[in-house]
Design a protein that fits this description.
The chain is mainly alpha-helical. The chain has 5 helices and no strands.
Length: about 130
């Protein structure tokens, strides 16, 4: 179980890192032209960059606290935050009729639920 949680956290961190780098450093116009990126044309650049920074922080928070053993309880807290972020992403893509992105975000959400459950519960770093 512990290994599965580590793998899940690493995969989710890679997703968050990719999304964070993209939203933070790729111009909004280029993102808006990409598949699934149409929503970016409807938000401010500041909001988009802030979201990117939050995703970068999520990438760090999903693994680094446990790796360095400093506040490892932040791992499941970060997973819960990711759940909320994915719920918002699913709503956004759903409103735009982008079903495949709703499904993809739901996979990320389920993975985050697994990590939160596992790290708050049976494989907690604090117990």
């Amino acid at each position: 179980m512990n290994l599965a949680l580590w793998i899940g956290a690493a995969l989710l961190a890679a997703v968050a890192l990719t999304g964070g780098v993209t939203k933070t450093f790729v111009p909004r116009e280029k993102l808006a032209a990409a598949p699934g990126g149409g929503w970016t044309a409807q938000v401010s650049v500041g909001f988009l960059k802030s979201l990117g920074v939050l995703e970068l922080l999520a990438a760090v928070g999903l693994v680094l606290p446990a790796v360095v053993d400093i506040a490892p309880a932040l791992v499941p807290v970060t997973a819960v935050c990711w759940i909320l972020l994915m719920a918002g992403a699913m709503i956004t893509h759903g409103r735009l009729g982008e079903a495949k992105f709703v499904v993809l975000n739901s996979v990320y959400l389920v993975l985050a639920v697994f990590i939160a459950w596992g790290r708050f519960g049976p494989e907690s770093f604090t117990g």
